[in-house]
Design brief:
The complex is a heterotrimer of chains A (about 600), B (about 325) and C (about 325).
Chain A lengths: L1 H16 L13 E5 L18 H8 L4 E3 L5 E3 L2 E6 L5 E6 L13 H13 L3 H7 L2 E8 L2 E6 L7 H5 L7 H4 L17 E7 L3 E6 L12 E5 L4 H9 L5 E2 L5 H8 L5 E5 L4 E6 L9 H10 L2 H7 L5 E3 L22 H10 L21 E6 L3 H16 L4 E6 L1 H8 L13 E6 L9 H6 L16 H11 L4 H18 L2 E7 L1 E5 L33 E2 L18 H28 L3
Parallel strand pairs in A: 1-10, 1-11, 15-16, 15-17
Antiparallel strand pairs in A: 2-3, 4-5, 5-7, 6-7, 8-9, 9-10, 12-19, 12-20, 13-17, 13-18, 14-18
Helix pairs in contact in A: 1-17, 9-11, 15-16
Chain B lengths: L1 E14 L2 E14 L3 E5 L6 H8 L7 E10 L2 E2 L5 H7 L4 E4 L3 H4 L6 H12 L4 H14 L16 H13 L5 E5 L7 H18 L2 E6 L2 H7 L2 E6 L2 E7 H6 L4 H9 L38 H5 L5 E4 L2 E3 L13
Parallel strand pairs in B: 3-8, 3-9, 6-7, 7-8
Antiparallel strand pairs in B: 1-2, 1-4, 4-5, 9-10, 10-12, 11-12
Chain C lengths: L1 H30 L5 H5 L8 H10 L6 H14 L12 H36 L4 H15 L2 H15 L17 H39 L2 H9 L3 H27 L5 H6 L5 H10 L3 H29 L9
Helix pairs in contact in C: 1-13, 5-6, 5-8, 5-10, 6-8, 7-8, 8-10, 9-10, 10-13, 12-13
Classes of the chains: A alpha+beta (about 600), B alpha/beta (about 325), C mainly alpha (about 325).
């Protein structure tokens, strides 16, 4: 019996090796596979799921009037040209001619007007809200139209102009339920060919694209939910690029892979330490300041993110933003933290090693964090240790995202209150898109401060907010924004920690004309419209991996060492089996 | 004519404390058509003797030495495939508890048919017919062919076992405590059936039991075992009238007598020796009323004290006569 | 007539159990903290006004009283309307139709193969009890069972897929390549090998242990010795007499496992990005996708009940002693 099994196993192993991938003739001509982590539903502007990469896939299929370039500056796109009036209320557009929808019909000014009306009538908050400021859309002729605003909006160029996808009127006028829309016909550089839920998207290059067809004939987006599987797929060359950023601990492995190229750049998501400002002692400025002084951002960046992050500014705004207040200086100081607490009356009276409140009440706080991110959990733990060092009794609690959300931001509605002490939180890059998002972060009125999840209230800040929203002149705006940062760096309604860098990896042998968009990475529209890429855009490629000598040898599958190991292992197995059989023969009773 | 000759059979069992000498130097012979009773108390080694002859001893037991000639062929050294051929065809077993000796997931008919088909070159139809005949012979209606073991009572199962043992017309049948566990009436029935079959078919049977009265009522010859050794071997009449070995006498005295209810029942004081470290002398030494010094040092062999009557004792004449 | 009464009472039993499970199925997800709002509303949930959010909740009936929701839930089950997934916004029946077959393929093959392997090796170990074969098998399988499932999967992927490139890293097939017929079958097989091997390595130990123990028990039975005494060949004793008896507990384990096939491969589906229903369930729970949770749990419930039912019917056929209680 054993003999038979060994022979069978051997035959089976040999049989398995016949399944070599080169046995299948895959069509390799001009196809690129980019893995994405989530199913993005049907790619219409109403039904996509995530801001990244979902919305970017939508932007491959649809076009916007303007387009953000690598530095996130709006450039003309569908609009060939535009002019803004002195008072900032009138926008004059000249539309490109001969733009066609994927089904061949022409894109006209009627489509533009229709899009604005449709989004207003069928709200999709992200697109609808910025459009609400448009009072009137007036069509001059076939190529010219105007947007007349009810008031000046400094962010108008970015949102909605460089954000709202233009819808084909001849299709959407018949769609009464946009949330179940399936027709993704747009005007963009790619046409959606096929979509299998949970599996993949297939797009083919739009040959008639007005800015020139993309050099990549076909894009396939396999959906791989598990990050490790995604990395392995890239390493095994089963996909040519992945939309997710590489996590710090595997970067060096990817950098030393000769088949891959790494591009790094600034990311604009903000990881921060959030206070519940309605609850004692987080309601006290002294407490929050002391906590800020106990946190060493640089240490977090070096230790947790292994250097793959930008240290946060105490004023919240990202250091590479044009509005960044570089005069803010802040150095962590444990002793100063302790002093502040002492002077504010937070003293350890009962000798248990932890401070009590000013009225002697015991302080025991819980620090919430999503259980899904090991890096964030580590950050939360380190901060908790520092807080314990300055005498504050804190405990980390990692829970699933939905539960944490329900405690920190119940119903995603700040007017519904909150049920937490401290949280390790993060905002996506859109929060850094315009500086006046800060108003939404800290304004005391829930309808204005829609993401003020800490429930922070301060009249001085509210006044600054009002001033900003009423100021249109850019230098004056910058001034106010800098004041706001000063305010945040003193009051600390939150403690900004760091901004994760974006590290993208891809196989340059397949395609090497990606353009890295700051805050986003290489999976963006411009990567596939090379004619529109600015030649002076800075590319931060890793030092170890200069482009050029890239092995296109697809037979290069791992080192020989592992092969020897495997063969040796099998030989051992067989030898062991034979040995066993002989021994066992001696043991059976006659 | 001798059908079975056992010479110097020794079988040991491995235990935690060492190897128990369960059967030590057992020798006897059997004539064709004879019913030999093998009697002794629990643990004396009688079942082990039977299993050894059939070479069914498995780890932790092992056959240390000996020969068992069945019609000239030594069962203990025959090759495996030859042994498998001999089993059931030449020597079969009526097992101790048919309760468990029948495979619960096959019909009784199938199990008997199986034993026939292994050894006889006949068609399945013939085997089935023979099975039905056998069942009738043991008193089971042949329409019960397709029933499963659990559908029979204990006694019926025993009959099935007997039918199965007869299925290949064996030269020798070993009936290993075949009536143990049955009620008295059924016991009597089964024993009567076995005796009847022996007469009708001229079978040679070894009847293993601890029930002395039953054995003496049906057997031609009796071998009495104690602590792994045969202590007395004679035909039934001689055992009853001229019982020699002290142990045999003790057994007889310990047996109640229906015809003499007032007879005193005397048990043998003491207990069986430790077979892992058996005494160098006679194994019955500790409990023997007639022991002598020589008994402690040497172990007595079976010697013929009267024609065809053997006893393993140093006493003059092989022991003392049983006083009735 | 007797039999009818018996069947009838069994049916009542089943119905009660199903009803209880349906109710739990409804309550448990809703007892979890948090709501599916984020998934219903999409990524810009933070930008919405209170009214907009309430409108979404109203639309899905999440603002109704719990009784109303319960009644809706029950009536939907009877009409077979599973509704739409909150997260994926597609009909749930489509989702299930797409993903269920993959899990069944994987776990079904695993159940069959690991049972066969477990039976063969278990019988071998028991037959050769105490010898090196037995000890090595025992040690080997115990070692195997100590390893976490995802670890085995990851090692296999790392070595055979990533480093050596013999197998694909992810997916059930190269979906976008649009293979047909034989090509497609080979492609699916190619993708299935690593996850299947992982699953087998995880599951085989239980069957092995059960079979070995059962076989040892059987080998100690008198009827086995009887068979030997009858002169039955060793091979026949091993396979016909011993194994068939020893298989009874293994068959029980097999039939119970049938019911849990659907949920059991979640970890493997994650590691290998296999689009099965286990992973779907997990996602559903994380995102509080009530209709999807309900639908998938319901399917598992029914498969367990059906498996039990099949076991009830099949077992008497294997073991003549069982099932005659009513006769």
């Amino acid at each position: 019996m054993a003999k038979f099994l060994i022979r069978f196993l051997l035959a089976f192993i040999i049989f398995l090796t016949s399944f070599h991938p080169s046995a299948y003739a895959e069509k390799k001509v001009d196809v690129m596979k980019i893995a994405i982590p989530k199913d993005e539903n049907t790619l219409t502007p109403y039904t996509y799921v995530t801001g990244y990469p979902g919305l970017d896939l939508v932007h491959l299929v649809y076009d916007t009037l303007l387009q953000l370039d690598e530095k996130n500056t709006p450039q003309p796109w569908l609009a060939k040209d535009y002019k803004v009036s002195e008072d900032g209320k009138t926008y004059d557009f000249t539309l490109h001619e001969n733009i066609k929808w994927h089904d061949g019909k022409p894109l006209t000014v009627d489509d533009i007007k229709f899009t604005v009306d449709y989004f207003i009538k069928n709200p999709k908050s992200r697109f609808t809200n910025p459009l609400k400021v448009i009072q009137e859309v007036s069509i001059t002729d076939d190529s010219h139209f105007k947007f007349i605003l009810s008031e000046a909006d400094p962010n108008f160029l970015i949102q909605p102009l460089a954000d709202v996808p233009i819808l084909p009127k001849h299709i959407w006028e018949a769609v009464s339920n946009p949330n179940e829309a399936t027709n993704a016909i747009g005007s963009g550089p790619y046409i959606l060919e096929d979509y299998k839920t949970g599996q993949f998207y297939k797009m083919k290059a739009n040959k008639d694209y007005f800015k020139g067809a993309s050099p990549v004939q076909q894009l396939i987006f396999p959906i791989i939910e598990d990050p490790t599987a995604m990395f392995t797929a890239l390493k095994a060359k089963e996909v040519d690029a992945i939309s997710s950023s590489i996590t710090p601990e595997v970067v060096s492995e990817f950098k030393s892979n000769p088949n891959l190229k790494i591009e790094e750049g600034p990311g604009f998501s903000t990881t921060l330490f959030q206070f519940n400002a309605e609850k004692y002692p987080m309601s006290e400025k002294s407490f929050r300041q002391a906590v800020a002084y106990a946190i060493d951002n640089q240490y977090l960046v070096d230790t947790v993110t292994l250097g793959f992050a930008q240290t946060g500014s105490p004023g919240f705004i990202h250091p590479s933003s044009p509005f960044y207040n570089k005069d803010l200086s802040f150095k962590p100081d444990m002793n100063k933290a302790k002093d502040i607490l002492d002077q504010a009356g937070f003293v350890d009276k009962d000798g248990d090693g932890f401070r009590e409140g000013a009225n002697g009440e015991k302080i025991k706080l819980v620090n919430l964090v999503y259980s899904t991110s090991p890096l964030r959990i580590r950050t939360a733990e380190i901060i908790t240790e520092w807080l314990k060092d300055i005498g504050i009794n804190v405990e980390v609690r990692a829970m699933d995202a939905t539960t944490v959300d329900s405690l920190v931001w119940p119903d995603f509605d700040v007017s519904k209150g909150r049920n937490f002490d401290l949280a390790l939180w993060s905002w996506s890059n859109t929060m850094q898109l315009f500086p006046d998002r800060m108003i939404e972060l800290f304004h005391s009125d829930p309808s204005i401060g829609s993401v003020n999840i800490g429930g922070y209230k301060n009249k001085e800040f509210d006044d600054l907010s009002k001033e900003l929203s009423q100021t249109y002149e850019s230098s004056k705006r910058t001034e106010i924004i800098k004041n706001m940062q000063e305010f945040v760096a003193d009051e600390f309604p939150i403690v900004p920690l760091y901004h994760d860098k974006i590290v993208n990896a891809y196989t340059p042998a397949v395609y090497d004309q990606f353009s890295f968009q700051e805050g986003k990475g290489i999976i963006n529209k411009l990567s596939f419209v090379p004619s529109s890429q600015s030649k002076t855009a800075t590319k931060n490629t890793s030092d170890d991996n200069q482009s050029g000598e890239v092995k296109t040898d697809t037979e290069n599958k791992g080192s020989n060492n592992s092969l020897f190991f495997l063969v040796g292992f099998i030989v051992l197995l067989i030898a062991g089996g034979i040995f066993l059989k002989q021994k066992s023969n001696k043991n059976t009773d006659v | 004519m001798t059908i079975l000759q056992v010479e110097n059979l020794s079988t040991y069992y491995k235990t935690d404390r060492g190897e128990a000498q369960a059967v030590e130097n057992v020798s006897f012979s059997m004539k064709k058509g004879e019913m030999l009773g093998l009697i002794g108390e629990s643990g004396c080694g009688k079942t082990t003797v039977a299993q050894s002859i059939l070479r069914l001893i498995e780890y932790p037991g092992r056959i240390v030495s000996g020969k068992a000639y069945l019609d000239g062929i030594d069962l203990l050294t025959a090759k495996q495939d030859e042994l498998e051929k001999l089993r059931w065809k030449d020597i079969s077993v009526i097992p101790q508890s048919a309760m468990n000796a029948l495979n619960p997931i096959y019909t009784i008919g199938d199990q008997i048919v199986e034993s026939i088909l292994i050894h006889e070159d006949v068609s399945k139809a013939t085997a089935i017919k023979r099975t039905e005949e056998l069942l009738e012979m043991v008193g089971i209606k042949k329409n019960r062919f397709k029933n499963y073991p659990h559908e029979f009572s204990g006694g019926m199962k025993q009959r099935v076992a007997i039918a199965m043992a007869l299925s290949c017309n064996p030269k020798l049948i070993i009936s290993d405590e075949s009536t143990t566990g049955l009620d008295v009436l059924t016991q009597a029935q089964i024993i009567a059936l076995i005796k009847q079959l022996q007469k009708d078919l001229g079978l040679s049977i070894i009847l293993i039991s601890h029930d002395l009265p039953m054995v003496t009522s049906v057997c031609d010859r009796v071998a009495i075992m104690y602590a792994g050794k045969i202590v007395e071997l004679a035909n039934t009449q001689d055992i009853l009238k001229h019982c020699s070995h002290p142990y045999s006498n003790g057994l007889l005295n310990a047996t109640p007598d229906l015809s003499n209810p007032d007879k005193e029942v005397v048990s043998i004081p003491g207990s069986v020796p430790d077979l892992v470290k058996p005494p160098t002398g006679c194994r019955f030494y500790d409990r023997c009323k007639a022991r002598m010094n020589v008994c402690k040092e040497e172990s007595p062999d079976l010697k013929e004290i009267r024609p065809d009557h053997f006893s393993a004792c140093f006493l003059e004449g092989g022991g003392y006569y049983h006083v009735q | 007539m007797y039999k009818f009464k018996f069947l009838y009472s069994k049916m009542i039993q089943y119905v009660l159990v199903i009803f209880l499970i349906l109710t739990l199925n409804f309550l448990l997800p809703r007892l979890m903290p948090g709501s599916p709002l984020a998934y219903l509303a999409g990524e810009d949930v933070g930008l919405m006004t209170s009214e907009e959010k309430q409108k979404i909740l109203d639309k899905h009936g999440l603002n109704d009283s719990i009784t109303t929701q319960y009644i809706d839930y029950l009536s939907n089950i009877f009409t077979g309307d599973f509704g739409f997934s909150y997260q994926q916004k597609v009909p749930i029946s489509d989702l299930i139709e797409d993903r269920l077959p993959w899990t069944l393929l994987l776990t079904g093959l695993n159940l069959v193969i690991s049972t066969i392997l477990g039976v063969i090796f278990g019988a071998m170990a028991a037959w050769k009890r105490g010898t090196k074969t037995d000890i090595n098998l025992l040690t080997g399988f115990m070692f195997l069972s100590a390893m976490p499932s995802f670890w085995i999967g990851m090692i296999l992927v790392s070595l055979f897929a990533s480093k050596l490139g013999w197998f694909p890293v992810f997916g059930a097939e190269t979906a976008w390549a649009d293979y047909q017929g034989m090509e497609r079958l080979l492609d699916i097989g190619h993708h299935m090998i690593l996850p299947l091997i992982t699953l087998i390595l995880i599951s085989v130990t239980t069957t092995f242990m059960t079979m070995r123990y059962s076989m040892l028990n059987v080998l100690g039975e008198d009827y086995i010795q009887m068979a030997k005494a009858k002169g039955v060949k060793e091979k026949t004793i091993k396979y016909k007499h011993a194994m068939r008896n020893a298989l009874l507990p293994v068959a029980t384990v097999f039939m119970l496992s049938l019911g849990f096939m659907l949920g059991g491969a979640t970890v493997i589906e994650t590691v290998f990005a296999y689009p099965g229903i286990g992973r779907l369930m997990f996602e559903a729970v994380v995102s509080r996708d009530y209709p999807l949770i309900q639908a998938t749990f319901l399917i598992i419930t029914f498969s367990v009940i059906i498996a039990n039912f099949i076991a009830d019917i099949l077992y008497p056929l294997l073991d003549p002693k069982v099932g005659k209680e009513n006769g």
